[in-house]
Amino acid sequence: MDEAQQGQRQRAIVGLAALAAVIQVLEAGIPSPIAGVKPGLANAVTLLVLLRLGPGAAVTVALLRVTAASLYLGTFLSPSFLLSLSGALAALIVMVLLHTLARGRLGALGLAGPMALAHMGAQLLSVRWLFDPGPGLTLLAPPLLSFALLAGVATGIIADRLLRRAEAMVQ
Amino acid sequence: MRPADALSLLLCSTLVVLSFLWAWAPAAGATEALVHLDDGRVLRLDLARAGTHRIHGPLGDTLIEVRDGRARISASPCPQQRCVARGWITEPGDASVCLPNHVALSIPGTPAGFDAVNH
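Predict the joint structure of the above. Result:
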């Protein structure tokens, strides 16, 4: 990869991270009927980056996104930032693992489901560890996981469409 | 959608269904109540067996009633009647105690929740 290509790649990473951060900030402004239920559309960008630019770029974009969005929202290093980070990290680990193990056979949809579950699972465990060890959280986990999977599928569909557009534009 | 994607989503749905089965399974209810007596003896009452038990204490007889998987102190010779006012106890960790007459009724186990939550 020559210098011009590398510069282009870095600009793409930074630009997409900014886009993902904006999506996360906008999502934070949408009132949610149940605490903890958010669409998680920013993950669509992470998926897009993974499948176009590779795992390294995807990890960079996701971590930049969480940090930038939390700075903007004023939650940096607060408990809600820790929740956001734990979810993002779990989703990243699952995403990179599955992507590597499946050797590219998994598309955006197949990755988005497990990512959403990992995201929600890690956040539930963090809530249990940080705030509330009570039994209510156990009862809340299944409906929250269901919402997460639905949102994950939606995110996967969006990422899939974006990827097809990106491929059409390149050709 | 490729076959691997379908398989992945299928596994995810299975996980979610399993989480419902795991988290929403009815908890094993209390099966017995303990009565701690003044002399250190412990009576075990089977909660499946309805009946009234007469416990002799320093002030007189305390009546313990078992019905529908619950237990309570239904009558007591003590002056303040706190143990009677406690009513039915049902969950592991619950207790109804009569200090004046030296009778302690409890359901063994770890309490599941908080006494109170303050924000």
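The CA atoms of residues 95 and 106 of chain B lie 4 Å apart.
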